[in-house]
């Protein structure tokens, strides 16, 4: 009995981490969006994209039901961080691209009074040059101290 309970408890944390998708040689892991303030006009999404194949692929577009959805990177020059729009993003063979606070991120623009709230999901479609299109969902999670946009 004790062993079964220990095993069950050991498996619990992995369920949250198993939020991932696969298309061709690409794995999209843990797509997450941060909850936003009620008045926010934009929300940010994060994930990792791993290419296990022999050929580079390109993330061409992210589609979602918002007026604009863009990929951004954060560049810091003279201690000033600015967002730079990415028209596309190469995912090199054998590499992982990470979208994370303070770096690359997805911008969902035009929330129009409908903030991202913990527990919701944000459906989106990733469009890759070689692998094609895959529907995913960003899980909305609570903002944590030191993370955000």
- Oligomeric form: single chain
CATH topology: the name is Immunoglobulin-like
Biggest sheet descriptor: 11 strands, mixed
- What number of domains? 1
Strand content: over 45%
Q: Determine the structural class based on helices, strands and strand pairing.
A: mainly beta
Distance between the termini: 46 Å
Rg over C-alpha atoms, rounded to the nearest angstrom? 17 Å
Looking at CATH, the homologous superfamily is PCu(A)C copper chaperone
Can you characterise this structure?
Helix content is 11%, strand content 52%. It has one domain (20-141): PCu(A)C copper chaperone (Immunoglobulin-like, Sandwich). The radius of gyration is 17 Å and the shape is globular. Strand 1 (20-23) and strand 2 (26-34) form a beta hairpin. The chain has one helix and eleven strands, in the order H-E-E-E-E-E-E-E-E-E-E-E. The chain has 149 residues and is mainly β. Residues 1-17 have low confidence and may be disordered. The longest helix has 16 residues, at 2-17. Strands 1, 2, 3, 4, 5, 6, 7, 8, 9, 10 and 11 form an eleven-stranded mixed β-sheet that branches. It has one helix at 2-17, and strands at 20-23, 26-34, 42-51, 57-63, 68-77, 80-86, 89-91, 96-99, 105-109, 121-128, 132-141.
């Amino acid at each position: 009995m004790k062993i079964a309970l220990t095993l069950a408890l050991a498996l619990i944390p992995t369920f949250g981490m198993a939020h991932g998708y696969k298309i061709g040689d690409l794995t999209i892991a843990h797509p997450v969006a941060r909850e936003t303030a009620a008045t926010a006009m934009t929300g940010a999404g994060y994930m990792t994209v791993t290419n296990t194949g022999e050929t580079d692929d390109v993330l061409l577009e992210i589609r979602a039901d918002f007026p604009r959805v863009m990929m951004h990177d954060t560049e810091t020059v003279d201690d000033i961080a600015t967002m730079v729009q990415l028209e596309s993003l190469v995912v090199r063979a054998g590499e992982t691209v990470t979208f994370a606070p303070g770096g690359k991120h997805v911008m969902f623009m035009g929330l129009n009074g409908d903030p991202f709230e913990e527990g919701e999901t944000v459906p989106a479609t990733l469009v890759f040059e070689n692998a094609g299109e895959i529907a995913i969902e960003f899980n909305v999670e609570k903002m944590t101290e030191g993370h955000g946009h």
